[in-house]
Every structure is written in C-alpha cells, then in structure tokens.
Specification:
Structural class of chain B: alpha/beta
Oligomer: heterodimer
Order of helices and strands of chain B: EHEEHHEHHHEHEHEHEHEHEHHEEEEE
Number of strands of chain A: 0
Radius of gyration of chain B: 19 Å
Largest sheet of chain A: none
Largest interface: A-B, 10 and 12 residues
Helix content of chain B: 25-40%
Distance between the termini of chain A: 17 Å
Strand order of the largest sheet of chain B: 5-4-6-7-1-8-15-14-9-10-12
Number of strands of chain B: 15
Helix content of chain A: 40-55%
Shape of chain A: globular
Order of helices and strands of chain A: HHH
Radius of gyration of chain A: 12 Å
Number of helices of chain A: 3
Structural class of chain A: mainly alpha
Strand content of chain A: under 5%
Number of helices of chain B: 13
Distance between the termini of chain B: 17 Å
C-alpha cells in the first residue's frame, strides 16, 4: 500500500467513509471531521508513519500545517514522511 | 432550611501558600505561569505551567509515606481553614474533597518503576497514596473529623461539586460544619502528556477570552473551606467570610469535550434560582475561562444570555493556571477577595478583544463593591457546577 493510500484509509476510517469516496478537494468539515476528529486523525497518522505533525486544535490556522482539504493533508503528510527518510 | 456561611479558608496554590499570599498575588494580577521543571520535560512539547514552588508541607516523615503531593496540598489548606474558623475540635464535621486525578504522581512514579525500569516491587503504601479519596481521608485524620467524608470526581468541576454537596448537607440540617474544597497535582510527566494528546494546552500563555488565545495552562494546588450553619457560626461569634447562597449541578448530556452554551446557561440560571438571586444582583463572575477557543466563546455567549447588564467577569486561571479538580476551590478564594475587599482579580494575558467574547472582561485589577458573585465550573464530560455567593 502506498503512503497516499494509507493516509486516505486513515482519514476515511475517521470519517466513516469508503476511501474510494474521498475527493482531494473535499474539506475536512464537509466530511464531518471537526477539530477533535482531526486531532484523532492526526494521532493515527503520527502513529502510522512515526512522524510528528504540528497541529494546534485551538487555532488550526497557526499550526503551519495546511489542512484545508484532503489533498493538502495528503501532501503535508507525504512531505513529513519523506523528511523522515 | 439552614443558611450556610464560610468561616475559614485555606490554600496552597501557585500564587501563594496561604490565603493572604494568594489575595496579594490576585490583587496584583501576578501570574504564576512560567517554565516548569519536572522529570522528563525534554520529552514534553508543553514546557509551561503554574507550579507550587518554594513550599514544603509540615508533616512527619511517618505521615509523608501516605501523602501524594495532592494530599499534602489538601491537608495543609484544611489546617489553615480550620485554624481561621477557630472551631477547635469538631468531631461531628466531615470533609468532601474534589479531585480529578487523585494521587496521579504516585501512579506515574510507580508505573515508571514497573514498566520503564522493570522493577517487580512497589512501595507497600502505593494504593493508599494513589487512591482518589486519600485527600479526604488524610484531612479527616489530621483534624480528627469523624463526620461524612469522601471525594467527588467530576474533572474540572470537582471542587464546585464538593463544595455544593457540603453546602447541601448543612442547608438540610444534616451536619452543622463541613470542610469542602478540592485538590489536584497533575504536573508530572504522565499528567501533562495525557493533556498534550488532546492538543488543548497552550505552549505560550493562558489568555482567557482574548483574541489570539491558544489553550489552557495546567496548574496544581488546593483550597479548602470551612462551611458552617450560619446560626451555629453567629452563636459562637465567628467571623463570616461569605454566605453560600445557592448551587447548581447539571449535565450537558451532549459531547464529551465540546462545551455547550445551553448547558452553561442552564447551570448559571439554576444557581441563581437556587440562591433566590436576581441576575442583576451579581456583581462579579469568576468564569471557568480556560483559555481554550471553544470554552471561552461558549461561556461568553452563555453569560451574555443570562446577564443583560455589564457584570464584571474575569478568569483567574490566567494567574494560577488550571488546577483541574482544585480549580473551583482556588477560584472561590478569588470570589472571597471580591466579596470581602471589593477587589476583582484580573484576567492576565489579554491581547485584544475577541468579537466572539462580548463580555465585560476585567483585564486590570478593579475595585468594585460586589454584593454577590457566581463561580462557574464547566467540566469535560459536560458536568457543570455553579456556586452563588453573597457577602457575609
């Protein structure tokens, strides 16, 4: 399974959706993922890839992490995984 | 129904080691939040908090073996409260203590010993040290109280539930004197790590109701009060610090962590109703005001719905941190300062107005004659307890 597929699988599980139904342009809130669901998703992503994802549930805008869309989350996590080596 | 007054107060918290020191720090708006020092800090993202520093409890070595820090804070606060009340021996009195974590540092230390260090043996008193009710037991033992005694846990509302429960017992005439308050000591590696997981801790400062706030800051400590049947207190010529006029206890029955505007509105209204208090009688609200985005927006909205006037509001968590199960008790000290001396402790860390928090927030120490106050506690899990007090 590719990194991308794994990320989608984790996000889909949190949103109670089929990974095939995820769209890169979807926003987390459109999938019913509120800030706490995102905290859980990010924990799952950190555990899956052994990375640290900067995310402030208080004010996601200041986290330095673009989580505006599913595509942005995938890109950010792929980048962190690549940095990890 | 009996009327219930407070005739003694004691505290050990990050602002001071007794009520006088705490009053001085509250009045000066001096925040105790800063860099913390504890084992394993290098593995924590959050490196700030409000610690009790420069303090050592006066205990025999043979007593200390039973005492997690949360219990040491609680017993010391209870001794101060009893000394101020001047009751002497009061065997019919009991103690209800609020605590969310109980002996969490004992749990943390012993898990480290058996899991991380691979030890196969723990101290024989590990259970009596870590049990949540240890604080109540040790206060009862220390002050020879033989009445109804136990611990209540409702996360960040534990103190107000404890005080409300003792208030109800005295009001019903079940017992003339009770000690009540709360204590927690979660500033240890495991305690902070657990909170970090929720990503609601600030790494910079506690800025309740302010624009730019980014979370809560943890504290530690205790406050304990002597609650007394007013007739009993007046008959012996006791000094009354304040009257507890009413209390509400409610459950949102909604989300486990997201606060509820309706829940907060209902809790405040029921406290006013229980106290027979009109909303415009209230001159000051010590808000739950954690400094999280969600709580403060929600609480401000609820306050605006219940109070049409410009009631003064502050969150002293910006000064002493969030004491979790000890929060409401230490915040009651700030309420006593407002009622007794007309000094409103400020909300520190304020940067700029948040349009979502349209309340009359006190950001500099203010002098005001206050006839009545509310003290809000809205806990994770949706459990709320609000106290309503009048000048004694």
């Amino acid at each position: 399974m590719t990194t991308r597929d794994r990320i989608l699988e984790i996000l889909a599980a949190q949103a109670l959706m089929d990974p095939a139904d995820l769209r890169m342009e979807s926003r987390p809130e459109d999938m019913g993922l509120d800030s706490l669901a995102l905290v859980e998703s990010i924990f799952a992503l950190e555990e899956a890839f052994d990375i640290a994802i900067p995310f402030n549930a208080q004010d996601p805008a200041v986290s330095g992490l673009d989580i505006s869309t599913i595509g942005a989350v995938v890109a950010a996590v792929e980048g962190l995984v690549a940095q990890r080596g | 129904m009996k009327r219930v007054v407070i005739t003694g107060a004691g505290t050990v918290n990050p602002l001071g080691h007794d009520v006088a020191q705490t009053y001085a720090a509250l009045a000066a708006g001096r925040s105790a939040i800063g860099p913390i020092n504890l084992a394993g800090i290098e593995r924590l993202d959050v490196k700030i908090g409000a610690q009790v520093t420069g303090w050592q409890g006066e205990f025999e070595k043979t007593d200390l073996v039973w005492m997690d820090p949360f219990a040491q804070f609680a017993v010391t606060a209870a001794r101060q409260a009893m000394a101020q009340a001047g009751l002497g021996k009061m065997p019919q009195a009991g103690v209800i203590l609020g605590s969310a974590g109980g002996g969490l540092q004992t749990v943390d230390d012993n898990y480290r010993a058996v899991y991380a260090m691979g030890k196969n043996r723990v101290h024989p008193f590990t259970v009596p040290r870590l049990m949540a009710s240890a604080g109540a037991s040790l206060i009862a033992r220390d002050l020879e109280l033989q009445g109804p005694s136990y611990t209540v846990a409702s996360a960040c509302s534990s103190s107000n539930h404890a005080i409300g429960q003792a208030f109800a017992m005295i009001r019903a005439g079940a017992v003339p004197v009770m000690l009540a308050g709360g204590s927690d000591a979660m500033l240890c590696f495991g305690g902070i790590k657990a909170w970090e997981g929720l990503r609601v801790l600030s790494q910079t400062a506690c800025r309740p109701f302010s624009k730019g706030r980014d979370g809560m800051v943890m504290g530690e400590g205790a406050a304990v009060f002597v609650l007394e049947d007013r007739d009993h207190a007046l008959a012996r010529g006791a000094t009354v610090l304040a009257e507890i006029a009413g209390c509400s206890m409610t459950a949102d029955a909604e989300d486990m962590v997201q606060p509820s505007v309706n829940g907060a509105v209902r809790a405040m209204r029921l406290a006013l109703q229980d106290a027979g208090m009109a909303a415009d009688e209230v001159g000051y609200i010590n808000a739950h005001g954690t400094g999280t985005h969600a709580n403060d927006k929600c609480e401000a909205s609820a306050i605006s719905q219940v109070f049409q006037n410009d009631v003064l509001v502050s969150s002293t968590k910006s000064l002493h941190g969030h004491l979790i199960g000890g929060a409401g008790a230490v915040e009651l000290v700030a309420c006593l300062l407002a009622l007794q001396q007309g000094v409103i402790a400020p909300t520190a860390g304020y940067l700029a107005a948040d349009p979502d928090c349209a309340i009359n927030l006190v950001t500099q120490t203010k002098t005001a004659t206050v006839a009545a106050v509310l003290s809000n506690s809205f806990a994770f899990g949706g459990l709320n307890a609000v106290l309503a007090l009048r000048r004694g």
